[in-house]
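The authors assume throughout that readers already know how a fold can be written as discrete tokens. What matters is that the chain and its backbone geometry are given together, residue for residue. A single example would do more here than another paragraph of explanation. For illustration, here is how one protein appears when written out as sequence plus structure tokens.
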Amino acid sequence: MKTPSYFSKWFEGWPELVCLDLDGTLVDSVPDIAGAVDAFLAELGAPLAGEERVRGWVGFGSAKLIEQALEWAKVDPAKQEEAYRIFLTHYHAHLTDGTILYPNVKVLLKALKYNGVPVALITNKPSVFVKPMLDHFELTEQFGWLLGGDTLEEKKPSAMPLLYCSESIEALPENCLMIGDSITDFKAASNAGFKCALVTYGYHQGVDLKALGADAIIDDLAELLV
């Protein structure tokens, strides 16, 4: 397979490692996350947030998501532990009810595998949900690493998860790529010295992606293979 133009420009060949975010990059999981948020809000007697509002909160990890929801609903912050318990229980039971895979995810993963590129899944999602979700979409075997937000001592935007993977195969950071959808992914890539491609269709948390200075802003993962 011919080396894609982005990779030729950045690496003079295929990258030594590709790290991928999950929510907002590979899958649209907001419908099920929003359902779990509304479940704990309802049980706490608070107004429901709804899918579109929750969409703007996703990307910083579950603890931050719950904190934002409680603040919005004007619920006592002391209820956070109870809310988190309800959230985890509900989300685990409805993990992939409405979650969908974005276009060309499997096309990209197949191309990377064919060309011998190691691939890591790095998300701030609790690790208990990561493998079941990937299993549902039959993607688990495509990844050499599955790192959740609680796998290591630090999570994105820390460089630690990215460097954990690159150092384990002695890959140079400048020859590695992070693909995500948010400022969290951009900062993680920047902190690690990785190239960064951001997708436009994910969860941007109100941030103008073009203003961040990522190496590429793409509308579809397949653009990386052109």
Q: What stands out?
A: The first helix runs from residue 5 to 11.
